[in-house]
């Protein structure tokens, strides 16, 4: 491994399904520390239904407390519909709108209450809104490696949808292993297909994994050409809408160290990252060694 990687820290993903409501001031304190660590992007919050995801109901208030300073980290907010996108584009600090586009009909219905086709039309409109506001769109291909619902699945269909997203003009597409079922072979094969089939598109991965399997998954994605990797400190997170036991994100502290050990430029300041990792347990109310 040599080269450069864009690391995307995802406190939003870590927080959204967390049982304990995290006070707004704690979120702000944590996010401000993360902003100084040097990540490429911070997936910090979402403009979604407060009823569906209560933990994210204070995203507007959180933004009001953020202090970007000299940080070059991009701020990404997740949106699930046009209403949420309308709120996001009004926030000057938001750089990117992230949209979860599922290739599983069941999950698309659970996550956004729409069919895949309707979701694509919705994403088309959101992308136009983002562009008019000078913001970028990041499309997450949810359930990209299969689903637990028995929905029909094929890698070719994933690629077909990715091609349609490229035709919309979306420049960043991230393959999401939403419930952590992808094998390294799948990750390698599908990531490679997107990297070669979508010239000009930044292909990333949002992998959920147990600690035992994270290395082989990350290495498979890197070898296939992915240069954008999502993770979350402490390995927390997982999608609360998936209806399955949550498989968490890959621990960002481990991932940054892994890339650095391979001479890959992460852009992250180790001391700042360590400070954030020490802060995380208090933010999430984690005591002891387990979480």
Output the number of helix runs: 11
**Which structural class best describes the helix and strand composition?**
alpha/beta
- How many structural domains in the coordinates? 1
Cα gyration radius (Å): 17 Å
Can you tell me the CATH topology?
A: TIM Barrel
Largest sheet composition: 8 strands, parallel, barrel
| CATH class descriptor name | Alpha Beta
Number of extended strands = 10
Indicate the low-confidence ranges by residue numbers: none
Based on the coordinates given, report the CATH architecture: Alpha-Beta Barrel
Q: What series of H and E elements makes up the topology?
A: EEHHEHEHEHHEHEHEHEHEH
Describe this protein's structure.
The protein is of the alpha/beta class. The chain has a single domain, classed as Aldolase class I (TIM Barrel). The protein is built from eleven helices and ten strands. The strands form two sheets. An eight-stranded parallel β-barrel has the order 2-3-4-5-6-7-8-9, surrounded by nine helices. Helix 2 (24-35) crosses helix 3 and helix 4 (82-89) packs parallel to helix 6 (116-132).
Give a brief description.
The chain is of the alpha/beta class and 291 residues long. It has helices spanning 11-16, 24-35, 59-65, 82-89, 105-112, 116-132, 155-168, 184-197, 214-223, 252-261, 270-284; strands at 3-4, 6-9, 41-47, 74-79, 96-102, 136-142, 172-177, 202-207, 228-231, 264-265. 47% of the residues are buried.
